[in-house]
Design a protein that fits this description.
Elements: H1 3-10, H2 32-40, H3 42-45, E1 48-52, E2 61-67, E3 70-76, E4 82-86, E5 101-103, E6 107-108, E7 115-116, E8 122-124, E9 143-149, E10 152-156, H4 164-168, H5 170-179, E11 185-194, H6 198-205, H7 212-215, H8 217-220, E12 229-232, E13 236-242, H9 250-253, E14 260-266, E15 270-275, E16 278-288, E17 291-300, H10 308-336, H11 352-370
Antiparallel strand pairs: 1-10, 2-3, 2-5, 3-4, 4-9, 6-7, 7-8, 9-10, 11-17, 12-13, 13-14, 14-15, 15-16, 16-17
């Protein structure tokens, strides 16, 4: 590893308690060496959401995505087993499946027609008749670890690592089971693009609602900010707030109800925002040092035509929040490039989740130094 990157990592002290802690250095948000190391560690060794369970319920159903620069394919086999693969043909490396999702009887590369079974085994190789030392059984699609939790499919690029259940931990699994997410149904997906490093978006999410009264007036009108709480687990943070009924922003209060709002972050880039009868799921994907895609999946208890107008009104409220966050995240990214800024102190009351995120990130990056 370049000494410069090692020096940047060494600038952060994860042992400091929250009362004494500051953020990770500004350089971590603007340095390509750090970004490259994140792809090799943070995004390769953690469980990454690859799709929804409802997309791959039946044999032949598949989804594709990109994780840490790697093309990924998840498919339900004829035997009913869900498997993940690198979406890379073993002949000349083209993507085998080119659509975001679909259903297929087999997996056929569009480049030279090499064909794989739904279980990833190579079967068809046009114009390969008498090639020496060619063993089709050794040229199947390369697998990735795959697991299902609640409504989602996850994959892990690295072959070695903790299972998904172990990574999540029993506390989180039990809490989500109590939410009965199986009663919520996917309604719509939207993509948002932020002019900032992916960590800026995560920091903003994890600031314990610190920015909500100042930036999100509508959202603040339905949250009891005084009683906002933050609880950290090993790899997750739960931010929670009692709901205020009949707030002074009718567009928000009409679609954000219930007794309590729950905001879950799972390291490093997966969020679940739960309100009574609805939730949205956020997947944060780095597109570059200064560019981030956030994929939102919206779920509702009622997805009938009769409920469509209200559901879209709820999504419109989400759009307002994202527009507000886009502007502030762009401002933060610009400031991180300033000679006037290096690190910022963290609030004991509000930023415990951010502190956890930074310590986990440091552990992954510094671990690569030891390797």
């Amino acid at each position: 590893m370049p000494k410069r990157v090692a020096d940047l990592i060494a600038q952060y002290d994860p042992s400091l308690p929250l009362a004494e802690a500051s953020t990770i250095p500004a350089s971590w948000y603007i340095d390509e060496g750090i970004a490259a190391l994140e792809r090799k560690t943070t995004f390769s060794r953690t469980w990454q959401m690859a799709g929804r369970v409802d997309q791959v319920r039946n044999p032949g159903n598949y989804v594709t995505c990109e994780i840490a620069g790697e093309p990924i394919l998840v498919v339900r086999g004829e035997d009913g087993v869900l498997r993940g693969f690198f979406n890379v043909c073993r002949h000349h490396a083209a993507a085998v499946m080119t659509e975001a999702s679909g259903c297929a009887k087999n997996l056929r590369c569009p480049y030279h027609g090499w064909t794989y079974t739904l279980e990833g085994a190579l079967k068809g190789t046009p114009s390969f008749n008498s090639e020496c030392h060619f063993d089709r059984s050794a040229h199947g699609l390369a697998p990735v670890a795959t697991a299902v939790w609640e409504n989602w499919v996850f994959v892990r690029l690295d072959a070695e690592g903790p299972g998904l259940q172990e990574f999540l931990g029993p506390q989180l699994i039990e809490e989500f089971a109590a939410l009965r997410l199986q009663d919520l149904h996917w309604f719509e997906r939207r993509h948002y693009y932020f002019d900032c490093n992916w960590k800026v978006f995560v920091d903003n999410y994890l600031d314990g609602g610190y920015h909500v009264p100042h930036l999100h007036k509508g959202l603040n009108s339905v949250l009891d900010f005084k009683n906002y709480t933050i609880e950290n687990g090993m790899h997750h943070c739960l931010q929670s707030s009692p709901m205020v009924k009949d707030g002074d922003h009718a567009d928000f209060s009409s679609v954000r109800g219930g007794d309590r709002a729950l905001y879950y972050w799972l390291h490093p880039n997966f969020m679940v925002n739960w309100y009574e009868g609805q939730m949205d799921v956020n997947l944060v994907l780095p597109l570059g040092l200064n560019r981030t895609e956030v994929i939102f999946d919206f779920y509702f208890a009622d997805v009938s035509e009769a409920a469509a107008e209200r559901n879209r009104a709820s999504i419109d409220v989400g759009n307002i929040i994202q527009d507000e966050d886009m502007a502030i995240c762009k401002s933060v990214q610009r400031g991180l490039n300033s000679r006037a800024y290096s690190t910022g102190r963290l609030s004991i009351r509000r930023e415990a989740g951010e502190h956890l995120f930074h310590r986990l990130l440091h552990g992954e990056l510094s671990g690569a130094l030891e390797e």
